[in-house]
C-alpha cells in the first residue's frame, strides 16, 4: 500500500508541474480506466451469455444451407451495414435465387448482348465476423458468420444466439428454414461431386433445373419402367427390412455415347426429388478407402452416379492386374496394347489411384455400404466389365441405350417443335424465317422456345417426314439434337435439308474413321518399335550385368587363389561369354588404355581365344596380387590376362 502511495504521490501532489509527471499520471489513469472497461465488458458478456442460447451451424452440414437460404430472404440481412458484394452466386447457400440484398438492373435491355449480361446478378452478403441482429417471432437473434480452416480447407460457420428460456425458438427457426429451403429446391436438382482429397468427401457442385421426363425420348415403356422401379424401391424399406435384404438398388445404363443415359438420371432425380452424388472412379487419388468413405457418407435417399464405370478398369489393367475388374480382352493382350500399358503404367500409378475391384465391390454392397440409395452406373463398354460387378444385387436393372430409332427421331422432333406456339411476339412474322432467326428480344418479351406457328397436323406430318429420312440405329439422339438445335427456328427447312445433313454426316464419319484407323496403325507401329527397343535394351542390360558379375566373381576368386593356376579363372570368363553377347566380353578389353594394340581391335571371340593363350602365358608369370588391386577392377582383369600395368608401359 505504501509502495503504491509512494508511486502515486508525485502524481497526486499538487505542487508537481513537471511534464514527465503529468504524462505518467495520464498513463496510469488511462490504464486504470481501460482495465475497468475490459473487466466490465467481460462481466457483461458473461452475464448476457448466461441468458443466451447459442447454436452453431457448420457449412459442412445441411442446416447451414437452410439457414443461409432463410437469411438471404430476411430484409434485415440485406440491409447489413457491413457486407461483401459478389457475383459468384452459384453457391451452396442458395443465393442463386433473388435475395433481399440483390442489386437489380432495371434498365430495359435493348440488345441481345445486354440480355445475356444482365443474368449476372450482384448479390450482397453480410461480411464475416460481424454480428447482425434480426427480429424473429418476438425474439432478437444475434447472428454471426465466421470462417474457419478445417481439414477440408476453408469452412464457414454460422452462430445464432437468442435470449430465451429454452431452445424451442431455435428449433422452430431451423424447421422453418428447412421447409423454405426444400420448397425452393423443388425445381432444382443438387449435384455433389466426389472429392478424393483428404480421404474423400463430397463437394457441392451446383443446383440444376429439373429436366422434365417428357424431354427424354426413349423407346416406349423404358422410362416408365425405370421410374416405376425407382418409386417402388423407395417405398419398400420395410419390405426389404422384413426379409433381411440390403436396402439398395443398382441400375446399369450401358450403350452408345449420346443416347441419353446421363440425361435420364438427371431427369429421374428431379422426378423423385433426390440429389445426385457423382463419383468418377478414374479420378486422381481414388483408392479403396476413399471410395468406401465416399459411399459411406451419402445420405440415405439419393442417387449415386458412377460415371463411365469401364474407365476405372481400363486404367486398372496396368495398375494391378490381380485386383481389377477388367477381363483380359483380345485387344489388351496384343503386343501393342501391352507395351502401351507398360509405358503408361508408371504415369498411372504415380497419381495415387489404387482402386481395386474388390474395393469397388465392397463399397457397393459391403457391410459398410450406405443403404437407401439408388446406384446408377453408366458405361459405353459393357463388355469390359467384370461379371462380378454387374451381377444382380449390385446392378439389378440393366438398360441398353442404342442409337436413335425412327420412333425416337419423331419424338425428338416433336420435343423441339411443340404444337402450341409459346408466347409468340406479335412483332415477329413467324412465316418469315429471317425474322424468326432474330431472337435478340429482351428476356421479358422473348418467348421461351422457338417462335413458329405449326398446327398439330403440320408438326405430325413434318415429324413423320423427318423420322422417315433418319436411318434406324445410325445416329445418336445427341447428334439429331445437334441438328435440330441448328434449325430450331426453321422446322420446315429442317426437314427438307435433313437428307443433305445425313450425307454430310456420313462423309464426316468416314473421314474420322479413316483418320482414326491411320492414327491407330501409327500408334501400333510406334508401340511395337518401342517394345522391340525396350526388349533389346533389357537384353543388353542383362548381358552387361552378367558380364560385370562374372568379372567381379573372377576378381573375388582371384584374391584368395592368387597362387592357383589362372586357367581355372579363364575358364570362367569363357563360360560366361558363351551365353552373353560377344561384345560384352570385348568391352573391358577395348576400354583398357593400358592394353596392347592387338587388344584394342580384338573381337569378343578373339578375346576368348587370346585369353586362353595369355592365361597359359600367365601361368608362367607369377603376378603380385597387390599390384592388380591397386589399379582397380579393369586393371585387375588385365593383370589376369598377363598384362600387368608395369609390363605394358
Ligand atoms: N434419348 C434422349 N432423349 C432426349 N435427349 C437426349 C437423348 N439422348 C441424348 N439426348 C441429348 O443428347 C445430349 C447428350 O446426352 P447424354 O449426356 O444423356 O448422353 P449419354 O448417353 O450419357 O452420353 P455419354 O455416354 O457420352 O455420357 C443431351 O444434351 C441430351 O439432351
From TrEMBL:
Keyword annotations from UniProtKB, A to Z: ATP-binding, Hydrolase, Membrane, Mitochondrion, Mitochondrion inner membrane, Nucleotide-binding, Transmembrane, Transmembrane helix
Gene3D superfamilies cross-referenced by the UniProt entry: P-loop containing nucleotide triphosphate hydrolases (3.40.50.300)
Subcellular location: Mitochondrion inner membrane
Annotated Acidic residues bias: 605-618
Compositionally biased tracts (Basic and acidic residues): 510-566, 619-633
Keyword set includes Cell cycle: no
Keyword check for Transmembrane helix: yes
Pfam families: AAA, AAA_lid_BCS1, BCS1_N
Main localization of the protein described in the UniProt heading: mitochondrion
Membrane topology: Single-pass membrane protein
AAA+ ATPase domain span: 247-405
Reactions catalysed according to its record: ATP + H2O = ADP + phosphate + H(+)
Domain called BCS1 N-terminal: residue spans: 27-216
Region (Disordered), start-end ranges: 317-354, 427-448, 510-649
Low complexity: compositionally biased ranges: 324-343, 588-604
Family the UniProt entry places it in: Belongs to the AAA ATPase family. BCS1 subfamily.
Name this protein carries in UniProt: P-loop containing nucleoside triphosphate hydrolase protein
The organism's taxonomic lineage, starting at the top: Eukaryota, Fungi, Dikarya, Basidiomycota, Agaricomycotina
Amino acid at each position: 500500500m505504501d509502495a503504491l502511495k509512494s508511486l502515486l504521490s508525485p502524481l497526486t501532489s499538487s505542487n508537481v508541474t513537471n511534464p514527465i509527471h503529468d504524462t505518467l499520471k495520464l498513463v496510469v489513469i488511462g490504464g486504470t480506466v481501460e482495465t475497468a472497461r475490459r473487466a466490465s465488458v467481460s462481466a457483461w458478456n458473461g452475464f448476457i451469455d448466461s441468458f443466451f442460447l447459442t447454436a452453431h451451424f457448420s457449412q459442412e452440414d445441411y442446416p447451414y444451407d437452410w439457414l443461409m437460404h432463410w437469411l438471404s430472404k430476411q430484409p434485415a440481412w440485406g440491409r447489413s451495414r457491413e457486407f461483401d458484394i459478389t457475383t459468384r452466386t452459384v453457391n451452396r447457400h442458395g443465393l442463386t435465387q433473388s435475395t433481399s440484398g440483390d442489386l437489380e438492373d432495371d434498365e430495359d435491355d435493348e440488345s441481345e448482348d445486354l440480355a445475356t449480361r444482365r443474368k449476372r446478378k450482384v448479390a450482397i452478403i453480410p461480411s464475416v465476423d460481424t454480428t447482425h441482429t434480426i427480429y424473429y417471432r418476438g425474439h432478437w437473434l444475434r447472428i454471426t458468420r465466421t470462417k474457419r480452416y478445417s481439414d477440408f480447407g476453408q469452412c464457414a460457420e454460422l452462430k445464432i444466439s437468442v435470449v430465451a428460456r429454452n431452445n424451442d425458438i431455435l428449433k422452430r427457426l431451423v424447421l422453418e428454414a428447412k421447409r423454405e429451403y426444400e420448397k425452393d429446391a423443388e425445381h432444382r436438382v443438387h449435384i455433389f461431386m466426389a472429392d478424393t482429397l483428404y480421404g474423400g468427401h463430397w463437394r457441392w457442385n451446383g443446383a440444376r433445373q429439373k429436366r422434365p421426363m417428357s424431354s427424354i425420348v426413349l423407346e416406349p415403356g423404358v422410362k416408365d419402367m425405370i421410374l416405376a422401379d425407382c418409386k417402388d424401391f423407395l417405398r419398400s424399406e420395410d419390405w426389404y427390412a422384413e426379409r433381411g435384404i440390403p436396402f439398395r438398388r443398382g441400375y446399369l445404363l450401358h450403350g452408345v455415347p449420346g443416347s441419353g443415359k446421363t440425361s435420364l438420371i438427371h431427369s429421374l432425380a428431379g422426378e423423385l426429388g433426390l440429389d445426385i452424388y457423382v463419383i468418377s472412379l478414374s479420378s486422381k487419388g481414388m483408392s479403396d478407402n476413399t471410395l468406401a468413405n465416399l459411399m459411406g457418407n451419402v445420405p440415405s435417399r439419393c442417387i449415386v452416379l458412377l460415371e463411365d464405370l469401364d474407365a476405372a478398369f481400363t486404367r486398372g489393367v496396368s495398375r494391378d492386374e490381380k485386383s481389377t475388374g477388367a477381363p483380359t480382352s483380345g485387344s489388351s493382350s496384343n503386343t501393342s496394347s501391352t507395351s502401351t500399358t507398360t509405358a503408361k503404367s508408371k504415369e498411372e500409378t504415380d497419381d495415387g489411384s489404387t482402386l481395386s475391384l474388390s474395393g469397388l465391390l465392397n463399397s457397393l454392397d459391403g457391410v459398410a455400404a450406405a443403404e437407401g440409395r439408388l446406384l446408377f452406373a453408366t458405361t459405353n463398354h459393357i463388355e469390359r466389365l467384370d461379371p462380378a460387378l454387374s451381377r444382380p444385387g449390385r446392378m439389378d436393372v440393366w438398360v441398353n441405350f442404342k442409337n436413335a430409332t425412327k420412333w425416337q427421331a419423331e419424338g425428338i422432333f416433336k420435343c423441339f417443335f411443340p404444337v402450341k406456339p409459346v408466347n409468340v411476339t406479335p412483332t415477329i412474322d413467324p412465316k418469315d424465317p429471317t425474322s424468326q432467326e432474330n431472337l435478340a428480344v429482351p428476356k421479358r418479351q422473348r418467348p421461351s422456345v422457338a417462335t413458329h406457328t405449326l398446327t398439330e397436323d403440320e408438326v405430325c406430318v413434318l415429324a413423320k417426314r423427318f423420322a422417315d429420312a433418319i436411318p434406324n440405329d445410325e445416329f445418336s439422339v445427341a447428334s439429331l439434337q445437334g441438328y435440330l438445335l441448328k434449325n430450331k427456328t426453321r422446322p420446315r427447312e429442317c426437314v427438307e435439308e435433313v437428307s443433305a445433313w445425313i450425307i454430310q454426316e456420313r462423309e464426316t464419319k468416314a473421314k474420322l474413321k479413316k483418320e482414326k484407323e491411320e492414327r491407330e496403325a501409327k500408334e501400333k507401329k510406334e508401340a511395337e518399335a518401342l517394345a522391340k527397343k525396350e526388349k533389346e535394351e533389357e537384353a543388353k542390360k542383362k548381358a552387361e550385368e552378367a558380364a560385370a558379375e562374372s568379372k567381379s566373381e573372377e576378381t573375388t576368386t582371384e584374391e584368395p587363389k592368387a597362387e592357383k593356376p589362372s586357367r581355372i579363372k579363364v575358364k570362367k570368363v569363357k563360360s560366361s561369354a558363351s551365353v552373353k553377347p560377344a561384345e560384352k566380353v570385348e568391352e573391358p578389353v577395348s576400354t583398357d588404355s593400358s592394353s596392347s594394340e592387338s587388344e584394342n581391335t580384338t573381337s569378343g571371340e578373339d578375346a576368348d581365344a587370346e585369353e586362353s593363350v595369355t592365361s597359359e602365358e600367365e601361368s608362367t608369370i607369377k603376378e603380385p596380387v597387390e599390384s592388380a588391386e591397386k589399379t582397380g577392377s579393369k586393371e585387375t582383369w588385365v593383370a589376369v590376362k598377363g598384362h600387368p600395368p608395369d609390363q605394358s608401359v
